[in-house]
Amino acid sequence: MCIRDSIYTKEERENHELTMLNLALLSHHEVLDIIRNASRDSGANIKLKRLFDRSVLVGRHMDTQDYNEHAQPLRKWVNSLFEPNTRTNLKELLFNYTPRDGFFAVNGFYTMFQKCWNALIEYTLAHLNHCDSPETCPLPEIEWYHPQPLKKVMSDIGHLITTIHHSELGDVRANIIEPHLGYALRETEMRLQQGMGCGHGLVAILELEK
After folding, report:
1. Of these four, 19, 63, 121, 181, which has the most CB atoms within 10 Å of its CB?
2. Is 208 within the bounds of a domain?
3. How far apart are CA 158 and CA 141, in angstroms?
4. How far apart are CA 58 and CA 78, in angstroms?
5. Does residue 22 sit within a domain?
6. Tell me: the pLDDT tens digits for 156-210?
7. Residue 170 domain-assigned (yes or no)
8. Is 20 inside any structural domain?
9. How far is CA 20 from CA 8, 17, 75, 104, in A?
10. In sequence order, which ranges of 133-203 are alpha helices (DSSP H)?
11. By residue range, what is the domain housing residue 142?
């Protein structure tokens, strides 16, 4: 399916004549069909090595809401994690997924991913709170039912916070912990995405044998 895509912000769209460009939206199955047809028509052997989604939550249209009125500006808050000497309100990174009728598989993926994303944010917040007030805030636990990639990044960020939280070498939360959380979120996305075509880019790595 091809649609018209704006390259402007919401404010610019409201106040200026727009320049539009064509944008192709492809699903996992459509990409496989293209590969099969190209292989058949060319007589070449095209092997799919990897198919993966890119930016399932932080594509630029998360902030414009062009394609989903329920989208939250997560790109803005993830970018904030990497701003030097700036503390991000981590609660802004929590999101609620609103299912859309007719997309059973995509709804299932995003429901799962929402739980993992939010669990990592909440785990980080709980660890920070524990380091600030250990007498009133219990140390958070990694649950047995969490997917292994999520357990790994939780363990890493928990160890980091415990190790450096009380360092006096600058603002360690803003300059070390928050960027590390940004990388942890990216790692979680990369490990849990399913190449369904529901991100801000579907990447295919192909091997061509003539």
Report:
1. 181
2. no
3. 10
4. 8
5. no
6. 999 999 999 888 889 999 999 999 999 999 999 999 999 998 888 889 999 998 7
7. yes
8. no
9. 9, 10, 22, 31
10. 148-164, 172, 178-192
11. 57-192
